[in-house]
Amino acid sequence: MKVHVDMNLCQSHGECVLIAPDVFDLGDDDVLVWKEEVPDDRRADMEAAVNACPMTAISIEG
Amino acid sequence: MDRLVVVGASLAGLRAAQAARAAGFDGELVVIGDEKHPPYTRPPLSKELIKGAHTPEQCAFPQRALEVTWRLGVAATGVDRAAKLIRLADGDTVSYDRLILATGSRARPWPGPQAHLTGVHTLRSLDDAVAFKAALTAGAARLVIIGAGFIGCEVAASARSLGLEVTVVDIAPHPMLPLGSELGERCARVHLDHGVDLRCSTGIAAIRGSDRVQAVELTDGSTVDTDVVLVALGALPNTEWLAGSGLSIDPGVLCDATLTTVDDPDILAAGDIASWPHPLADHNRVRIEHWTTAAEHGQLAGRNAVLAHGERASHELPPYFWSDQYDVKIQAVGFSTLADRLEILESSPQGDRLVAVGSRDGRLVCAVAFNAAKRLAWYRRHLTSAPPELEQIKQLVSTDPGALGAPVGAAG
After folding, report:
1. pTM, to two decimals
2. Which of B87, B153, B343, B350 has the fewest CB atoms in 10 Å of its CB?
3. From CA B343, how far away is CA B403, in angstroms rounded?
4. What ipTM did this prediction achieve?
């Protein structure tokens, strides 16, 4: 599955980082970095990240 | 269980419905909401929507296919627990097997007839925000904001970016009262630097105007002429409709740690109206009005509602909130109001980024960051239901290469 983050919306709240630190991280400049391709067995975590994002910046595809 | 009913169609209600489905509930799911809009997110209302960066449509929550019967635009007016049904304002009734209460809050209104003058607004719902934005952009030049809390401060920043003259009045000695005096004074300086006329330790003597608002009289004897007033005095929980249900109300709905009401195992509460014992608050009941708590509560209540009472999980996450004002992102985790001491632990050399920690009896109870999101996430991971001692945190910070550095003038 593919993970998209709309960086025009992201405000670095870090909810996704708390849920899946192996997929999402904040750089030292507080800008989000993430893996765009995530194995299907992480779907529950990715859906949790979508729902936890205060800016509704995260979407998943596939 | 055949039918789960959620009363409240905002963040907590939506997340509850989604979580119940995700947990495998395949019965009938009804969500009742008094607003006509499908669920939308409120944080942009005081910022992006007012500034014109977001349309109202962009505030709607994206929803993947969710099998729900929506009853929108009709308020619930009561619960008959013996008959297990909800009464609606249009005279209809909806029966339930299990019920999640998530009716949220409303803006605390101005306590007087001047609340109804043209130009006097509150800001809570999408309709409020659209009306307030229309008032600001219909030739208004001056705005008075009553209350320097989250909404008041964020709207002050938004209105300054639109070029309005902004006066903010609060009886408290500094803005953002829960942050304490040192950080509150920093907030004050940010607003003053952006041209806000900030009147702290000052009350409102009267709102003046015959049909349309004209001025606000302050308790220091001064008068501020204005075109628009925003009343930003906090929120009240929407629990009055539960009077007569037999549920205990304080004014939140009294719940146990699993968000199950103390009076009825078939009824749970989530979000602003839930009052539940929190481990970081010595298991005293707390009621939290922040976005993230509503999301977490909805998620947990939806999952718990499909389980037997004895199988339900507790809500133990520390509360998290944020506020965006100009180019300052304030983030906080934990219970700042419980702290007996608040000190700045990390700061950038310029002082524009910092982290302060609050402690009670030597244990961490909160962390507050200004423009330090990655650091705040670090503290959030450490603020568990068994919080560390402050000295332990200081030790970890002193050896953490990611820390911002010691504040200027700090010992050691």
Report:
1. 0.95
2. B350
3. 15
4. 0.93
